[in-house]
Write a structure and sequence with these properties.
Radius of gyration: 26 Å
Distance between the termini: 79 Å
Largest sheet: 4 strands, mixed
């Protein structure tokens, strides 16, 4: 019978182990975090949410330790030094209070940290493009705005409290609302006619379509082609204020523009004529942020 020879690990080479990392073990390993970049709380909270919700995917990323004599684990016996990579994932395990399986690489030279995290992080738009989605940049922006809107945020439509949503959370939004693909397409079309950002256009199209699909189609058709618009029409007023703000500031505040679009929609739905369109966000008597009706 042929004998199989198993090579003994070289003590000078990196060691690879797939381990179940408990919150207690993660806490212990974080004590080795003596030479790393600043911890980003939003990243930790995002990872923790995925772990807690069962959305964490084992994608081959590893926890990395430098060479050292600290006993990181009794069985199998693993020794290492400073934590080189993985502080956000370990902190997320502690925050989520869950056990997660990960690849752990130890016995690395200190200099390997110089090459970690130097590549460009894959954006949600990149992920959507790889999935074959049309209008993937606009769709990615729309998914973020819809997620944040559903969290109750209004004045800042790019962040949801202390944690930025992860790709998995935003892809779930697309699974729940596949109609956002149509909203992204419409927003891209509107942007070619009036200087309304695609992210704002997609969010508003999605919001208005949920109120009344027929009125939404008419509203965005007239916003795009401005056919038959006359002074007094809320859509006419909206086009004017968008263009004026774009000329004055270049890139107007997104929450302000979104509020103006929603106000124009509400006036249109109510059949009201208006001469000017404005939104007072601050001051002594700020307006309540509008909701589509």
């Amino acid at each position: 019978m042929r004998k199989t020879t198993v090579a003994m690990p070289d003590p000078d080479e990196p060691q690879y182990n797939v381990l179940y990392i408990t919150p207690q073990l993660a806490e212990k390993w974080l004590r080795q975090n003596t030479h790393n970049r600043n911890l980003r709380e939003r990243v930790v909270n995002g990872y923790a949410t995925d772990m807690r919700d069962g959305n964490w995917v084992e994608d081959g990323q590893s926890i990395k330790f430098a060479k050292g004599d600290v006993l990181l684990l009794d069985s199998p016996p693993i020794r290492g030094g400073a934590l080189l990579d993985g502080q956000h994932r370990l902190s997320a395990i502690v925050t989520a209070d869950v056990t997660v399986r990960m690849l752990v690489v130890s016995n690395l030279p200190d200099t390997t940290q110089d090459t970690m995290d130097t590549g460009a992080k894959r954006s949600l738009g990149d992920v959507l493009k790889l999935r074959g989605e049309d209008h993937y940049v606009t769709l990615a922006a729309a998914l973020l705005r819809v997620y944040v809107w559903k969290q109750g945020a209004r004045k800042n439509l790019k962040t949801a409290g202390r944690s930025r949503p992860t790709h998995r959370q935003l892809l779930r939004v697309l699974d729940e609302h596949p109609e956002l693909r149509r909203s992204a397409e419409m927003a891209s079309r509107v942007r070619n006619s009036v200087r309304l950002s695609a992210s704002t256009g997609a969010l508003c199209h999605w919001l208005f379509n949920r109120v009344d699909a027929s009125d939404c189609a008419f509203f965005f058709a007239r916003l795009t082609d401005h056919a038959g618009l006359v002074p007094g029409d809320p859509i006419y007023a909206l086009r004017r204020v968008i263009e004026n703000l774009a000329k004055a500031t270049g890139r107007p505040d997104e929450a302000l523009i979104t509020a103006l679009v929603i106000k124009a929609w509400n006036f249109y739905r109510a059949g009201e004529e208006i001469q000017t369109l404005a939104f007072k966000a601050g001051g002594a008597k700020p307006e309540t942020y509008p909701e589509p009706k």
